[in-house]
Structures are given as C-alpha cells and as structure tokens.
Write a structure and sequence with these properties.
Chain A is an alpha/beta fold. In chain A, 19% of the residues lie in helices and 33% in strands. Chain B has helices at 104-107, 116-125, 207-216, 218-236, and strands at residues 3-8, 17-21, 27-33, 36-41, 55-56, 60-62, 68-71, 77-79, 87-88, 90-93, 96-100, 127-131, 136-138, 146-152, 155-159, 166-171, 177-178, 193-196, 200-206. The chains are: A alpha/beta (346), B alpha+beta (242). Chains A and B meet through helix 7 of A and strand 16 of B.
C-alpha cells in the first residue's frame, strides 16, 4: 500500500505492507514520524485519514482518548487496507543521517531469570545483528498476546545479536503475565526498533545524571555499559539514582556496585528506598553503593544540590516518578529543558 | 473591538496559572506574573496537551509533555519550543480580567517584538482577503510580490504539476505566514500552489514595501529577518535530536 503523509512542513511517501502498522512502516522508511511509546498508550502518533481505508488492530488502545476530531487514528495501531493519504498536524523531517533506522526483527527467548519477586530478566537472541544507541528501546510482541510493548535494552554492543530486557510484573498486563507464568524460554518473538531519543553518545562531553525508578534502570544500564566501554568516567562525572520501594526490590545491585568500584572518583550510585529505612544489611552487602530513604527524585535533589554544572540528565521509570524528576530538575535545579532526556513509553 | 470576560482576578494564584473559558467557548491559559496578567492559547501548539498541566515559575511556562517552554511575557519560544504561543491581550478592569481580539499580524511569530510604529505601518499595508474553500491564492510560477498572514481557515501547498504533484504542508494557525518568497531576494516566482481548503481569511501584504519599512527601522528589521530565517529553517531542515 502506498501511504502519502502530509505534515505541516512537507509530504512523505512510503510503502506499507497490508499487515504493517503505518507508524512502523514510516519509521522503517527513515521518516522521523512523531511517536513516544509505539504501543498504543501515549497518543503521540495520532494522524488524520484524508483518503483511503484503514483497519484498527486495537480499538481499545488507551491512547485513543487523545483522538478528538473525526478521522483521527493512532498510526501505531492501524494498518492500511488500500492506498491512503494521511495528515499529521506537526512538523516532520527525515531521521538524522547518524540515527539507527528502525527495522523488524525476529528473535528467540533464550533465558529468563527472576531479578526480584516481581521483576524478570529476559534475554532474546536475534536472527540478524542490529545496531542501536545506548538508552533506546524495542517494541516486542510475544506469542498469543496481540500488540507490541516497549522494553529498553540493558546491554550495549554494536551489531548485537542479543538483547537483555527487564520486565515488571503487571497484573492484567497481557505480555507481562505471559512472560511471568513460565515457559517463555524458546518462544519466538517479533521485534521492532530501535526507538526512543533518550540516547547517550560518548561525544556528549557532559557529566551525566541518571534518575530511574524500578524497571526504568534498564536503559540506564545500557548507557552505563557504553560509558564504561569508552572509559567515559575517566573524564566526566556520573550520578546514578535508582529508586525502588524496599531493599528486596533492588536488582542489578552487584553490577552497579562493580561499576562504582571501577570508577571510584567519578561515578556515584545511590539506591533510594521509598518505603523503608535503609536496612544495615544493604550497606554491608554493597559498601560501594549509597543507600538513602526517600523518593528517588527527592534523594537526587538532596545529593545533587550545587552539582548541576555541565550536566545532562536521563530519566526513566513509572510516569509519576519521571514527572516528579522533571519538575525537580526544571523548577528546583533550574536545569535547562534541553539538558533533560526521557522517553515515556511505560 | 470585541472584548470578552475571562474570570475574576482573584482566581489566578500569584505567579500561577489556570485554564479559563470565555462565554463563547474560547479556552485560554491565564497566568499572573507580578502585577501583570497574560492569556495564551490553552493547548500546547506541539501536541495539544493542556498547558495548565505544565510547570510555571512566574517567568517561564513549560509544557510537561516534551518540555517546550515560553517566555510568559511575550509567548516567544524558549529552549526546545519550535513555535510561539498565540497571545490574547488582557485588560484588567477592577476585579475582572478581559481579553480583547487582536489581528493576525499581532499574533504572527514573524513580528513578535518589533516596534509598535513599524507594526502599525505594516498593518496599514495589509489588505484583507476573504476566500472561499477551493480558491487558489497563487499558483506555480506566479509573481511572488506579496506575502500572506493567515487570520483564520486553512491553506494547503502543492508542489509539481500535471498530475505529478505532491502536497507540501499546510497552515492552520492564526498568524502563520506564507508566500515568504516576497520577502527574499532573487525569488521572483512562486514554487508551489497555495489553496484554501476551507473558507479562509487572509491578510495580503506587499513584500517590497514591507522591506522598505524594515530598512527604516533596522532594529525591527533584524528581528524579522532572524525570525524569517528560523521559520524557513523549520521547513527545510532536519529536526535534529530531541
């Protein structure tokens, strides 16, 4: 199917297969279409159908609440039945020449492990190698559960054949429940990406501040992996704040502790426990990590005071935690908005 | 001039903001900054998120969705923001706030911040054109003498001819400027067709005479040229990383 997409500034033309989501087809063609979650919740990819017919794969998608005018639809949930002409209300451009253009991939789940009582680590082997940038995510569709969900990569290598993901247990969440019930190993999954613009490149030349809640630590691990490979913390400071409810909810603590020991002068990792005072056991087991009681944005605010010089902040996690961190960084820390990066896709 | 009641002054927290609706259904963001009040479009021009859900510190307004920011006193874009906010002049009468209507020229981002005298002189050049849906403002190859400011309606652009044409964007906001070739050197002809997709109200302004006015007020001319170049860059350049 031929899609003609008219944006405020110009038009684009691309092909979409009969069962290919219009958003994914456009992104795969190298067009920087508006999106945030790519999975039906945020409403960012809304467009208006001017000509042609579409099928909506998920009419109950939460993001449909942002649709107001007749003919509007979510590009991430709709496929073209014939040649279509659609309109996007914003400015759209080609992707940057250096960007990793999103593609479809298939993979096999090769490993699952419980990281905590309600967080699962998941490894996927890819049939073909792929490049992504540290901090990005893929959307994944698991067998028997229609629709894609976004997961940040934990690892970082160029031309990787493996993704490590973190999955939080969500009662009623189809993909999450399927992964947690066991037996996922060996399953074939469909992937699309890389997506997301909260990316880290070593030529950034700024101190980095990571504030993550829960499974939001995944993308931070990828950023830290790349920074470690490039010995970034020989020159720049890193402040990592990882918020969980209680000590038993923490994971990747051994990996974070190892990183903190490798760069003792410039990398500080603090675990914020929102629901309990810090148990003595925490400091005994991980003396290289800091532990504080409080919400992650509050702990970050206390620790970072006076240290915002030349800082780029990365935020990830449950939307309320990200919003609280944005508020803190803009209003309290007076960090300029273009020094803050996040993708809201959970 | 048409003047609409917005809300009692006491409803706006000091250095705070709320969303209001006028009797005829116009939704506005109303903010206080010290002794002054400002009213803007209620929704973010980026992706229609209510601006009242954003952050405001008495000077800078931030949309929480993608951190677009504006100067509360002018509505001019700051930081990541790619567009100005449409502003509505506020009048305070006793304990009540009113907004008054303004022309598209006052709303045009291209002219935000220029001197009142020059804006008045450009306003005097403007001819109002009421156009029906389907009417063509200009076609490929036509002389590019005038530029247009959209008052209301919707205008679409088309490149190419003889069935090998492609859409090339559209304008729908009050104060958007098109046909800017009239303000450039060595661009004597139109490179696209501009069609009104619905009944539209336009201001048509002679480019050469506008440039003469700007030459006599070079401070304003500098502002307009800076804004014009970023406007053109927005249409041709890659967005860069967020």
């Amino acid at each position: 199917m031929r899609i003609e997409l008219n944006a405020r500034n110009r038009a684009f033309h691309f092909e979409a297969d009969p069962c290919e989501r219009i958003l994914y087809a456009g992104l795969a063609a190298g067009i920087n279409l508006p999106y945030e979650c790519g999975s039906g919740t945020c409403g960012t990819c809304k467009a208006r159908l001017v000509k042609g017919e579409i099928d909506d794969l998920w009419p109950e998608a939460a993001g449909r609440k942002y649709l107001k005018q007749a003919g509007e639809f979510l590009m991430c949930q709709c496929v073209a039945r014939n040649d279509c002409s659609v309109e996007v209300a914003g400015f759209v451009n080609d992707m940057d020449p250096g960007a990793c253009t999103p593609v479809f991939r298939t993979g096999t789940i090769i490993d699952t492990s419980m990281l905590t009582h309600d967080v699962l680590g998941l490894s996927v082997a890819l049939t073909e190698p792929i490049d992504f940038d540290a901090g990005q995510f893929f959307t994944m569709q698991v067998p028997g559960v229609p629709g894609y969900r976004g997961y940040s990569m934990v690892n970082f290598e160029r031309a990787t054949r493996r993704f490590d993901f973190v999955v939080k247990k969500k009662p009623g969440g189809g993909a999450s429940e399927w992964l947690f019930k066991g037996g996922a190993k060996g399953a074939r999954v469909e992937l699309f990406g890389p997506l997301g613009s909260a990316t880290f490149y070593p030529d950034l030349s700024k101190n980095i501040l990571c504030i993550a809640g829960g499974s939001g630590i995944a993308g931070m691990m990828s950023i830290l992996a790349r920074a470690r490979q490039e010995r970034y913390f020989d020159q720049f400071n890193g402040h990592v704040f990882f918020g969980v409810r209680a000590y038993r909810d923490g994971f990747y603590l051994a990996e974070l502790s190892q990183l903190a020991r490798e760069f003792p002068d410039r990398l500080r990792v603090t675990i914020a426990l929102s629901d309990e005072a810090v148990p003595a056991q925490a400091r005994e087991e991980y003396p290289a990590l800091g532990f504080e009681h409080g919400f992650v944005h509050e702990v970050a605010a206390r620790t970072m005071e006076g240290k915002y010089h030349n800082v780029r902040a990365y935020l990830a996690g449950p939307p309320p935690a990200v919003d609280a961190s944005i508020r803190m960084l803009l209003l309290q820390a007076k960090l300029p908005a273009d020094h803050i990066r996040y993708d809201k896709f959970s | 001039m048409d003047k609409r009641f917005v809300c009692p002054r006491a409803e706006i927290p000091a250095n705070g903001m709320i969303q209001c609706e006028t009797g005829d259904g116009l939704k506005l963001l109303v903010a206080n900054a010290g002794d002054d009040y400002f009213a803007y479009q209620a929704m973010c021009p980026h992706q229609e998120v209510p601006l009242c859900e954003g952050l405001y510190d008495g000077a800078v307004l931030t949309c929480h969705q993608h951190l677009w920011q504006w100067d509360i006193r002018t509505g001019a874009p700051l930081g990541l923001a790619e567009q100005a906010l449409e502003s509505f002049p506020v009048e305070v009468e006793g304990d009540s706030l009113y907004v008054v209507a303004q022309s598209a020229l006052n709303a045009a981002e291209l002219f935000v911040g220029i001197s009142d005298a020059t804006l008045a002189a450009i306003t005097a050049l403007a001819q109002k054109e009421e156009r029906a849906a389907g009417s063509v403002c200009y076609d490929l190859g036509d002389p590019a003498d005038d530029f247009y400011v959209l008052e209301s309606g919707r205008v679409e652009f088309l490149l190419g001819r003889d069935g090998r044409s492609s859409p090339a964007g559209f304008m729908l906001r009050k104060g958007e400027v098109f046909g800017w070739a009239a303000l450039l050197d060595n661009q004597p002809r139109r490179i696209a067709r501009a069609t009104c997709l619905e009944a539209s109200l336009l201001l048509r302004i002679n480019g050469k005479r506008t440039l003469e006015l700007l030459e006599h007020d070079s401070a304003s001319g500098y502002i307009v040229m800076r804004r014009l170049s970023s406007l053109i860059a927005r249409y041709v350049a890659s967005s860069g990383s967020k």
